[in-house]
Amino acid sequence: MPITRAIVPAGGKGTRLFPVTKAQPKEMLPLGTRPVIQGVAEELVSAGVTDILIITGAGKSPVEDHFDPTSGLTAADAGVDGWPPYDDEAIQFYFTRQGEPRGLGDAVRCGERFAGEEHVIVALGDCIITSDQPAAPLRRMLAAHAEHEADASILVQRVSLEATGRYGIVQPGRELAEGAFEMDDIIEKPGPEDAPSRYAVAARYVFSPTLFPYLADLEPGKGAEIQLTDAVRAMIADGHRVLGVPLQEGERRLDVGNFESYSRAFFRTMLTDEVVGEGLRRYAANLLEHLRDASHPDPDLPSDA
Ligand code: G1P
Question: How many CA atoms lie within 13 A of 34 on its CB side?
């Protein structure tokens, strides 16, 4: 049966982006010419999702307003045609509040009734996955999940050894077709000495309903938060099949979690934007020259200054 439902956690406070996030959700920060959570929704729709539950919290109303085409500035007001870039009638958004954010596992648990008896995608609202083909990584993960009748499948990416402490890190087991593997273990944010590999959880998951009882039983883990990773770990320990599906060449996870990752993601999406990218690449090259050697013209001054 095709998977058409997705849970998008977007309740986090964005503390690492203060004061930018003092009065606006990090999910509304632009990556390229759209808010990051708009990119997440477009990726999900491209993979066949029709029903999207966004888990919000205090201060997150702009996310709800954004997905209401009649609220605030409309595409017609702005003179923009063909927005949103999907059939709005065919896609239904739902919203629920997490209350006090207690961790990713707690946020996903808010989607239990929405998921019902179906398998459901979880896509973090502060990350996009870029690829040449829209949603190719997500579709590959869904295909592997169905083919191997898994209870959970997780998109993973290689990270540097120093970076393992910022991610859930997985221990790969038996290799399957197309680079996917069975997962033998998973640990939330281990230091390099404890990391079982350099494969990090990359913000996209698919779960059978088996997940939810595990979430209900969780004690706070890393950072005193209810960790989704800990539920997956317990599923593996009980013999449920969990897959890792690596990002491939040309595929990238970009996030707005902190100023450095946000800046990188913003540069990359802007510099590769279809409309403004070419001019910005020229600008960036000139600016770098100028910063390296002040005798090169400053691209923010008129050339005849
Ligand atoms: C969360 C997860 C972590 C994952 C990361 C990126 O961490 O807990 O396992 O690797 O997202 O997908 P966060 O960045 O929210 O602290």
Answer: 20
- Specify whether the CB–CB gap between 47 and 8 falls below 8 A: no
253 with 157: CB under 8 angstroms? yes
For residue 144 and ligand 1, the question of a CB distance below 6 A is answered with no
What separation in Å is there between the alpha carbon of 218 and the centre of ligand 1? Answer: 17
The band of 17, judged by pLDDT with boundaries at 50, 70 and 90, is very high
Among protein residues, the one whose CA lies closest to atom 12 of ligand 1: 203
Pocket lining: 199 vs ligand 1, CB cutoff 6 Å: no
User: 202 CB under 6 A from ligand 1?
Assistant: yes
- Rounded distance from Cα 126 to ligand 1 centre (Å): 10
Would you mind telling me the total number of residues written for the chain in this entry?
Answer: 305
pTM of the model: 0.96
Percent of the chain with pLDDT over 70: 100
Structure confidence by residue, pLDDT tens digits, 170-184: 999 999 988 899 999
**For ligand 1, atom 11, which residue shows the shortest CA distance?**
203
Phi-psi domain of 108 (left: phi exceeds 0; alpha: psi -120 through 50; beta: other): alpha
Question: Does ligand 1 lie within 6 Å of residue 200's CB atom?
Answer: yes
CA torsion sign for 72, 73, 74, 76 is positive
Angle between the N-to-C axes of helices 277-292 and 259-271, in degrees from 0 to 180, rounded to the nearest 10:
120
For residue 36, the number of C-alpha atoms closer than 13 Å in the C-beta half-sphere is 26
Q: Is 207 close to ligand 1, i.e. is its CB under 6 Å away?
A: no
